[in-house]
Design the sequence.
C-alpha cells in the first residue's frame, strides 16, 4: 500500500517529466512542508496519512491567504498563481462538505448537548469538529455552530 507522501512524490516525478512547472513547484513545496513536519519536535518520525493531509490543508490555507493578500495589493497575476497552487493541493484532499451537509453534520453533533452560556461554544466546537473530521474548514464549522447555538 502506498502512502500519501509516496503518492505526492510519484506525482512530482510525473509532473517533472511532463514539464508542468506549476505542479512541480507546488508539489515540491508540499513535500518540503511534510518533511519539515517530520523532523520537527524532539525526534524525527514518519507522518501518518492523516498528518500529511493536515499539512496539506495548512498549505492550502496559506495559498488562499496569500492569494487574498496579493489580490488586495493589486498583484492579480501572483494571486492567480496562488489560486492555481491551491487547486493543485485540493486534488489530494477529500471533498469538502457543502453548506447543507455541514449544517446536518453540526446538527447531529450538537444533539443531546447542553448548550447554555458562553462555555457552550467550546463544547459545541469540540463535538462538531469530531463529527466533520477535517471535511470542512474550522472557520466554516465555527460559523455554523454559532448560527445553530443562536437559534
Sequence:
Amino acid at each position: 500500500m502506498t502512502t500519501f507522501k509516496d503518492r505526492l512524490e510519484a506525482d512530482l516525478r510525473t509532473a517533472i517529466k511532463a514539464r508542468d512547472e506549476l505542479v512541480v513547484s507546488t508539489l515540491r513545496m508540499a513535500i518540503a512542508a511534510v518533511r519539515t513536519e517530520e523532523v520537527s519536535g524532539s525526534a524525527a518520525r514518519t507522518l501518518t496519512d492523516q498528518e500529511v493531509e493536515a499539512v496539506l490543508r495548512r498549505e492550502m490555507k496559506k495559498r488562499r491567504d496569500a492569494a487574498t493578500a496579493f489580490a488586495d495589493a493589486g498583484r492579480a497575476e501572483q494571486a492567480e498563481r496562488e489560486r492555481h497552487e491551491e487547486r493543485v493541493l485540493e486534488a489530494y484532499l477529500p471533498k469538502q462538505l457543502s453548506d447543507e451537509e455541514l449544517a446536518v453534520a453540526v446538527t447531529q453533533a450538537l444533539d443531546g448537548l447542553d448548550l447554555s452560556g458562553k462555555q457552550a461554544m467550546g463544547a459545541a466546537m469540540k463535538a462538531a469538529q469530531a463529527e466533520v473530521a477535517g471535511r470542512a474548514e474550522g472557520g466554516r464549522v465555527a460559523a455554523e455552530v454559532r448560527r445553530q447555538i443562536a437559534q
